[in-house]
Design goal:
Elements lengths: L3 E5 L4 H9 L4 E5 L10 H14 L3 E6 L4 H11 L3 E4 L5 H11 L2 E8 L2 H7 L12 E6 L30 E4 L7 H8 L3 E4 L4 E3 L2 E2 L1 H13 L4
Parallel strand pairs: 1-2, 1-8, 2-3, 3-4, 4-5, 5-6, 6-7, 7-8
Antiparallel strand pairs: 9-10
The chain binds the ligand O=C(O)c1ccccc1NCC(=O)[C@H](O)[C@H](O)COP(=O)(O)O.
Keywords: Amino-acid biosynthesis, Aromatic amino acid biosynthesis, Isomerase, Tryptophan biosynthesis
Protein name: N-(5'-phosphoribosyl)anthranilate isomerase
GO molecular function, one term: phosphoribosylanthranilate isomerase activity
Length: 223
């Protein structure tokens, strides 16, 4: 089975259509006001409806340390397929968001070393009551003003050796049309997730780069 591709940080219907027409498997919508990719609840609901009409892709709503009211509003108004938690949520909070929303959870984990990877598997226990999949991403810069993700930074993919054979995982962080095949070959990721690497500037998706990313990812194979 070929690697699934998530195009994250979609803000406009043009960018959405470019991703869907190019064969994206998952669409990421960022609800985080500090992000240049932020969309409102209403915008996310409209983009989700458009994706549903096109068919073929799952919609992922990305949240950072959301409160209960936001989780409930997302579940009711957007009705995505998954919620991506991209903040400092610990296992109990992930479980609570799963219960409150009734949705599958993709938990983003910042990776610095092999211990981060080994510890992340606690998010998958006990059998599906917390997150359904892990997303390994680069650690954000230490600068307090930096975003928790979407920074276009890579990490040493060899660290993910510790994850191989345990459970399918998603990979993010500085992926581009130029390096995604190498990332898949080395890590065997089930999903590759990109935002900055298919943009002309923060928040502006480039349809040609989206097409190139999908093409490169879909022919790549684990080595
Ligand atoms: O994209 C953002 O602005 C963002 C803000 C806050 C938390 C996470 C955010 N993005 C995460 C992603 O887009 C992806 O899941 C992933 O980190 C890819 O980012 P990139 O390195 O830019 O390809």
């Amino acid at each position: 089975m070929s690697t699934r591709v998530k195009i994250c940080g979609i803000r406009t219907s043009d960018a959405l259509d470019a991703a869907l027409d190019a064969g994206a498997d998952l669409i990421g919508l960022v609800l985080y006001p500090k992000s240049p990719r932020n969309v409102s609840l209403d915008e996310a609901a409209a983009l989700t409806l458009r994706a549903r009409h096109h068919g073929g892709a799952d919609v992922v709503t990305l949240l950072v340390d959301p409160d209960d009211a936001l989780v409930e509003a997302v579940a009711e108004k957007i009705k995505p397929d998954l919620i991506q938690l991209h903040g400092h949520e610990m296992t109990a909070r992930v479980e609570a968001v799963r219960e409150l929303s009734g949705l599958r959870i993709l938990k983003a984990v910042p990776v610095g070393d092999a211990e981060d990877v080994a510890a992340a598997f606690d998010y998958l226990k006990p059998n599906g009551t917390r997150a359904q999949m892990l997303l390994f991403d680069a650690k954000p810069p230490a600068d307090p003003g930096s975003l928790p993700g979407g920074n276009g930074l890579t990490f040493d993919w060899r660290i993910l050796e510790a994850a191989k054979g345990r459970a399918p995982f998603a990979l993010a962080g500085g992926l581009t049309p130029e390096n995604v095949a190498a990332a898949i070959a080395l890590t065997g990721a089930a999903i590759v997730d990109v935002s900055s690497g298919v943009e002309s500037r923060p928040g502006e998706k480039d349809p040609e780069r989206i097409r190139r990313f999908l093409k490169a990812a879909k022919v790549a194979k684990e080595a």
